[in-house]
Design the sequence.
């Protein structure tokens, strides 16, 4: 780019430099950013504006909304708990151990993230349905999963738990291996090493992974409707109630959407605060 | 490194830049598209009718949006571009007439549909008559009350209560394991043998011939009347009218009958 050279005044040069750096760098970041932010913000804003009407509280505080919200919170919390319990050891193995077919295991964990939820729901139904490949065995001992709250949790776990495992694996991988060696020299066994060194050091990655899983589970819809069906108080989660509200009356769908957004914002703020405390 | 931010900008502007450079389609070679918003229960019949109508009108593409009638009505109210609306009940059509999306007096009934009980091919629960639906412990899948077929189902159960005992409806509803958001989902759950029974339109049972059925006698049944109309905002009113006339013609009606629908009375 041409420079204003030579005899020009210093101020002018400074101004030009300022302008140049301004246009060169800042706006190249800000403009595309604003474009994307607007895409996130505008639909949510429209939802809020349109939901403001006389019936908002009638719908938002209805028994159906309450039951659906409670079910959503309970199932997504169980899903997150399960993901942490079963996912943490798995993430640790993936981060530290070397074994055959490891890349295949990693692929398997990433797959549910990219699959459309409808495929996930269908796969779960074909596998664990009453006449499913494995579900028929469960059926023999009297366990039938479809249309139960357990099915909601399974569907959520299938689509949301991989997010936790991914995040936790990265957290464990980033820990300096020398720290582990030092702990090993000090005489720590594998269990102590995990609990007293790795787990606290990966804390932030584990927490943000758990938040991702929680919020994804809260919004799960496609796999749930296929595998768990829709029954108020049993399998009707908030996204499902919103979808059916859309079939009946736009006002219901709008009101419930706003409730879910408020709850999600509250949860995200809460977890951000926890994350911050963890950091300090 | 310096060029990197520019790349973002170029990418961000790309769709806009490209779009304006595209040649505008010329009027005479312009392929026509007819967009039909139709109730989910019409999926198979309308797909076939759409193909017939396309071959009768070269250069025409008929695209369908199949969903619950309420969802379609809402989409139309929110400005979705559609030429024709075919609803599974009069309520949604009346709503569109009130909101001036459809002209008063234009909608016509083009078919009747009624309910039938479907059972999985192996009928492992051993159901054989309507009263069996109240058998405790069977797994029943219905369409949700919010969609027309679900509403009709509950009306029919009400009528059955007059015959089978006043608590019949409650006993049947206690067996419901899921209220599906559309009728095709009810069929799918019964096809997969996840449910012991479901209640759907006769047209849906015709589309799934491997299923067993229990007929619901006319006096206990609910006859659903399907209205159809071109939309006021349609850019192809003539084509839309032609499509509706085709539906009402003997050719169109024979396809509808093939898929289990009854002609309008």
Sequence:
């Amino acid at each position: 780019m041409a420079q204003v050279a030579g005899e020009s005044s210093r101020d002018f040069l400074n101004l030009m430099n300022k302008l140049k750096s301004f246009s060169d760098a800042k706006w190249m970041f800000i403009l595309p950013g604003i474009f994307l932010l607007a895409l996130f913000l505008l639909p949510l804003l429209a939802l809020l504006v349109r939901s403001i009407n006389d019936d908002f509280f009638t719908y938002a505080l209805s028994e159906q909304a309450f039951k659906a919200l409670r079910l959503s919170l309970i199932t997504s919390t169980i899903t997150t708990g399960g993901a942490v319990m079963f996912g943490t050891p798995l993430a640790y193995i993936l981060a530290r151990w070397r074994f055959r077919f490891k890349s295949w295991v990693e692929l398997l964990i990433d797959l549910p993230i990219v699959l459309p939820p409808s495929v996930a729901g269908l796969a779960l139904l074909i596998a664990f349905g009453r006449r499913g490949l494995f579900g028929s065995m469960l059926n023999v001992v009297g366990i039938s999963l479809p249309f139960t709250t357990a099915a909601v949790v399974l569907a959520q776990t299938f689509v949301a738990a991989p997010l936790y495992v991914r995040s936790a694996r990265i957290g464990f991988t980033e820990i300096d291996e020398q720290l582990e060696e030092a702990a090993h020299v000090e005489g720590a066994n594998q269990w102590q090493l995990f609990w007293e060194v790795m787990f606290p050091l990966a804390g932030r990655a584990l927490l943000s992974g758990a938040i991702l899983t929680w919020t994804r589970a809260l919004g799960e819809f496609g796999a749930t409707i296929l595998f768990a069906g829709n029954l108020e108080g049993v399998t009707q989660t908030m996204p499902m109630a919103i979808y059916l509200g859309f079939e009946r009356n736009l006002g219901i769908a709008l009101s419930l959407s706003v409730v879910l957004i408020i709850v999600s914002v509250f949860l995200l703020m809460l977890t951000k605060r926890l994350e911050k405390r963890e950091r300090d | 490194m310096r060029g990197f931010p520019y790349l973002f900008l170029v990418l961000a502007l790309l769709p806009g830049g490209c779009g304006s450079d595209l040649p505008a389609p010329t009027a005479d070679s312009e392929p026509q598209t007819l967009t039909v918003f139709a109730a989910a229960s019409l999926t198979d019949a309308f797909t076939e009718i759409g193909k017939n109508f396309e071959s009768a009108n070269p250069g025409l593409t008929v695209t369908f949006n199949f969903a619950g009638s309420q969802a379609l009505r809402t989409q139309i109210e929110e400005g979705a571009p559609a030429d024709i609306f075919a609803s599974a009940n009069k309520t949604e059509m009346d709503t569109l007439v009130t909101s001036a999306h459809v002209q008063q007096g234009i909608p016509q009934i083009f078919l009747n549909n009624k309910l039938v009980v479907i059972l999985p091919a192996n009928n492992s629960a051993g159901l054989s008559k309507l009263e069996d639906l109240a058998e405790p412990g069977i797994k029943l899948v219905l369409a949700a009350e919010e969609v027309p077929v679900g509403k009709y189902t509950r009306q029919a159960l009400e009528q059955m209560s007059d015959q089978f005992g006043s608590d019949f409806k409650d006993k049947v509803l206690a067996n419901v394991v899921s209220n599906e958001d559309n009728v095709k989902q009810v069929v799918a759950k019964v096809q997969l043998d996840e449910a012991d029974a479901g209640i759907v339109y006769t047209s849906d049972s015709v589309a799934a011939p491997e299923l067993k059925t229990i007929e619901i006698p006319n006096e206990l049944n609910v006859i659903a009347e399907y209205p159809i109309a071109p939309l006021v905002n349609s850019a192809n009113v003539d084509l839309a009218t032609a499509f509706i006339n085709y539906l009402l013609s003997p050719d169109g009606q024979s396809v509808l009958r093939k898929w289990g629908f009854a002609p309008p009375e």
In short: Confidence is low (pLDDT under 50) at residues 1-5 of chain A. Residues 11 and 208 of chain A are 48 Å apart (CA to CA). The interface with chain B takes residues 24-25, 28-29, 31-32, 35, 125-126, 129-131, 146-147, 225, 228-232, 235, 240, 243-248, 250 of chain A (CB under 8 Å). Chain A is about 80% helix and 0% strand.
